[in-house]
């Protein structure tokens, strides 16, 4: 085994954290926010849902930024969450978006830094957690390296979405759970149960699907934990912890989550019946489509198999994933004692989310929820499994270790191409946005600040994208909302929406002069 002194290891850890930070913040504000980001940002910062505010932005009314920013009260705040993504999903993440907007402004880079913050914390948790379990090996250091260059981590660190926080909370909760069930009762600080409870509720309020991680904790307890006192305390901790979440689901905006999912499913089924499949997104959950999704997600969960499906297709990707699963099975039989138990624990955390996605796809007959991001809550432990394999090969006397080293270098280079695509906003993994420019909405707001004079009127367009659903009717408030997000809260600029103009934002001067502030050109600058 390669021996690294504690001082050298500390230096390596700090260097990797610095590299990780740089990889995640490079060009972070260069490309405008896209639809999912807009949705969360509007709810978090201005307590309104995207395409909401129809009461103050009615087509027969003139409105001001001051009206947009007025305290909307609990009812409108709750209504915005109810109409948002899965009705109240990501509450805690949105609170951090609000905090960062107050501290650093509502700009793309500052809001996306919330995801960077939680992902860097996740890297630290992975390293410290594995170092505590495998203190005499280099597994923790290898895992930190893999996490540093993990494309999924880097891509979602540059999005103002809740996945980085969810993964942080579930990763820390899982390591804390491991510590609780593997520490003798007389030596365990009871505060750990409190910390675990806090992480349970944080996880649930960062993304609803994280529940499957705690199902994995429960299954592991049934398999290995024999101290009934510990099990009883864990059950009580979880039950008390989810009381606020249950209140949110029963009485708060979360009570509409099931209806939201039902409406989404109805739309997808309608689209399939009337317009057909959208490859890679809206597909029937038949054997062929589901098999492809399983191979794709399984492939991207691990460093050694990442991108094989995308590059070589279903057959080659499937063979590579199968070989990797055989390697994991072999590694399982090389372990014993604590190592074996942690190996099983990691397998549960990695694969249970995917198994749940298979179940939901079969239940609904659509594959729209079958993406890596929904199976990513245990990805920190897929990194561990890969690190364990690398460490095993390095410690062996086989010449295979040199072949492995070459493969690691080549795979790093291949995966880094996806990171370069992110920086250039070209077609990329895990995201459908490409070819974006800098966010146009702050630029429009700046022009209004500079050019507006008393009795002028800003006129916004109303654009309806019917590419996926031609049943949509009425006028849109999105552009007006997103510009007002960057205008002074106390401004009294007169504004209105023209329901017959789809693209141009204009400033109508009191003299009658018309100044074009921006032309969205359909979907070209609307992401």
Quick rundown:
The chain is 61% helix and 4% strand. It is mainly α and 527 residues long. The relative contact order is 0.12.
Keywords:
4 strands; 527 residues; 21 helices; 4% strand; 4-stranded mixed β-sheet; mainly alpha
Structural overview:
With 527 residues, the chain is mainly α. The protein is 61% helix and 4% strand. The protein is built from 21 helices and 4 strands. A 4-stranded mixed beta sheet has the order 2-1-3-4, covered by helices on one side. A hairpin with a 5-residue loop joins strand 3 (504-508) and strand 4 (514-519). Helix 1 (6-25) packs parallel to helix 7 (139-149) and helix 5 (91-104) packs across helix 6 (108-133). The longest helix has 28 residues, at 337-364. The chain is globular and about 85 Å long. It starts with 5 loop residues before the first helix and ends in an 8-residue tail after the last strand.
Count, helices? 21
Radius of gyration computed on alpha carbons: 25 Å
Shape: globular
Amino- and carboxy-terminal Cα gap: 50 Å
Q: Could you describe the largest sheet, including whether it forms a barrel?
A: 4 strands, mixed
Percent helix, as a range, is 55-70%
Low-confidence stretches: none
């Amino acid at each position: 085994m390669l021996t690294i002194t504690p001082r050298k290891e500390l230096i390596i850890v700090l260097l990797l954290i610095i590299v990780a930070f740089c990889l995640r913040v490079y060009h972070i504000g260069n490309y405008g926010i896209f639809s999912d980001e807009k949705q969360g940002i509007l709810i978090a910062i201005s307590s309104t849902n995207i395409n909401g505010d129809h009461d103050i932005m009615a087509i027969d009314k003139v409105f001001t930024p001051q009206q947009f920013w007025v305290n909307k009260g609990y009812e409108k705040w709750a209504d915005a969450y109810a109409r948002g993504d899965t009705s109240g999903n990501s509450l805690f993440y949105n609170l951090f978006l609000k905090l960062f907007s107050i501290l650093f402004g509502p700009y793309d880079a500052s809001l996306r830094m919330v995801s960077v913050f939680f992902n860097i914390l996740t890297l630290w948790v992975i390293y410290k957690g594995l170092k505590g379990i495998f203190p005499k090996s280099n597994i923790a250091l290898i895992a930190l390296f893999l996490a540093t260059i993990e494309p999924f981590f880097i891509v979602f660190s540059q999005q103002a979405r809740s996945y980085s926080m969810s993964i942080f909370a579930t990763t820390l909760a899982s390591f804390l759970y491991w510590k609780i069930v593997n520490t003798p009762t007389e030596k365990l600080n009871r505060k750990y149960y409190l910390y675990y409870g806090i992480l349970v509720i944080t996880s649930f309020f960062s993304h609803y699907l994280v529940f499957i991680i705690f199902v994995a904790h429960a299954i592991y307890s049934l398999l290995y934990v024999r101290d009934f006192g510990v099990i009883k305390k864990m059950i009580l901790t979880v039950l008390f912890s989810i009381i606020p979440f249950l209140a949110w689901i029963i009485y708060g905006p979360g009570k509409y989550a099931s209806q939201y999912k039902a409406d989404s499913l109805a739309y997808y089924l309608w689209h399939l019946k009337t317009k057909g499949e959208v490859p890679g997104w809206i597909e029937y959950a038949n054997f062929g489509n589901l098999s492809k999704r399983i191979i794709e997600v399984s492939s991207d969960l691990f460093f050694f198999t990442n991108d094989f499906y995308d590059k070589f297709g279903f057959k080659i990707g499937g063979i590579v994933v199968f070989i990797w699963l055989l390697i994991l099975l072999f590694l399982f039989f090389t372990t014993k004692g604590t190592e074996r138990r942690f190996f099983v624990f990691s397998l549960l955390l990695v694969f249970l989310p995917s198994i749940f996605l298979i179940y939901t796809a079969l239940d609904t007959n659509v594959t729209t929820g079958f993406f890596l991001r929904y199976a990513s809550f245990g990805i920190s432990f897929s990194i561990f499994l890969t690190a364990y394999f690398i460490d095993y090969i390095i410690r062996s006397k086989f010449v295979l270790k040199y072949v492995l080293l070459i493969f690691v270098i080549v795979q790093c280079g291949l995966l880094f191409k996806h990171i370069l695509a992110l920086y250039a906003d070209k077609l990329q993994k895990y995201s459908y946005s490409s070819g974006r420019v800098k966010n146009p909405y702050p630029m429009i707001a700046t022009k209004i600040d500079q050019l507006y004079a008393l009795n002028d009127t800003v006129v916004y367009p109303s654009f309806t994208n019917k590419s996926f659903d031609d049943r949509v009717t009425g006028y849109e408030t999105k552009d007006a909302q997103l510009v007002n997000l960057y205008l002074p809260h106390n401004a009294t600029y007169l504004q209105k929406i023209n329901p017959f103009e789809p693209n141009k934002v204009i400033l109508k001067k009191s003299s009658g002069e018309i100044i074009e502030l921006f032309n969205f050109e359909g979907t070209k600058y609307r992401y």
